[in-house]
Design brief:
Blueprint (H helix, E strand, L loop, with lengths): L2 E7 L9 H8 L5 E7 L5 H6 L6 E6 L8 H12 L5 E4 L4 E2 L5 H10 L8 E10 L1 E6 L7 E7 L4 E4 L4 E4 L7 E13 L3 H14 L6 H5 L22 H5 L2 H13 L4 H5 L15
Parallel strand pairs: 1-2, 1-4, 2-3, 6-11
Antiparallel strand pairs: 4-8, 5-11, 6-7, 6-8, 9-10
């Protein structure tokens, strides 16, 4: 069995993407890792080269931003086209996999390798927000998605590259892994988040109000979101410890939930309670 990791990245340093942590998190179970580097305004290419790993394969492209958010799926499919493995494991540049889940994922890929009724393997999501100890489960934040796909030419990325589909239009046949994707795109300084939001608007993801373009991003009261009691992937430890908001929030979480069993045993757990109304 051969496993190809793949991702796309552009302006990683400018927008503070934890792309190195993302790649390193699944590199141990990959035989190769394809990285599509878009034309950047910073030293993204040098950053990727700093990995200095023979598994890394770099593809350089120029992104046509006139395509809007579909440019992301187009570039994802370019990266996918360079993958040679039986399975293709996709992580976006702000998504990280916990090392404790790697053995389970390897077994899942091995188990379904010859089962042609399985197109993809599905993950649960932890969208961290404002703090490494808060996550969102309310309306608009998807909670399950596919990240490992069979690399036989029948599956492709679509839309804004958040998901995959079969090229023949039939439903994607998937199996659950019961593993988490740790999404860290929303744990950033306020000025970085403001820049990211403006970039998202330029691509076509959102429509910002005038005042939102001119001010720092505001996370609001983090206490209204569920608390996370488990560990973070080992590759993220330095970033977690250096995030001041998270450190102060962790103290609050310990005080408020001193009694919670998941806190005492550091259980990697996500509440099943889904908020129906969107929290602004």
């Amino acid at each position: 069995m051969k496993v190809s990791g793949f991702t796309i990245v552009r302006n990683a340093r400018k927008y503070n993407y934890p792309v190195l942590e993302s790649i390193r998190s699944i590199l141990p179970i990959c035989d190769e890792f394809v990285i599509n580097i878009g034309d950047s305004e910073d030293d993204t290419r040098a950053l990727i080269l700093s990995l200095n790993d023979p598994k890394i394969k770099i593809v350089e492209t120029r992104w046509d931003m006139a395509q809007g958010k579909e440019v992301l799926s187009q570039q994802t499919n370019i990266a996918l086209s360079h993958c040679s493995g039986d399975w293709a494991f996709y992580v976006q540049s702000d998504e990280v996999i916990h090392e404790e889940d790697l053995p389970r994922l390897w077994r899942c890929m091995k188990k379904f390798l010859l089962d042609r009724d399985v197109d993809a393997l599905r993950f649960k999501w932890l969208h961290f927000y404002g703090s490494y100890y808060r996550y969102r489960i309310d309306h608009g934040w998807y909670q399950k998605q596919d990240r490992i796909i069979r690399n036989n030419g029948t599956v492709e990325s679509f839309g804004d590259a958040y998901a995959f589909q079969r090229k023949d239009g039939k439903p994607l046949r998937r199996k659950n892994t019961d593993c988490f994707v740790y999404h860290y795109g929303w744990v950033q300084p306020q000025d970085v988040m403001a820049s990211r939001r403006k970039n998202a608007e330029d691509i076509g993801f959102v429509q910002l109000k005038a005042e939102e373009r001119q001010s720092l991003y505001t996370f609001g009261d983090l206490g209204r979101f569920p608390a996370y009691f488990g560990s973070h992937p080992r590759v993220m430890q330095q970033l977690v410890r250096s995030h001041e908001t998270s450190e102060s929030d962790l103290e609050y979480v310990h005080q408020q939930y001193w009694w919670h069993p998941c806190r005492w045993f550091k259980v990697r757990y996500k509440t099943f309670h889904r908020v129906k109304e969107k929290i602004s």
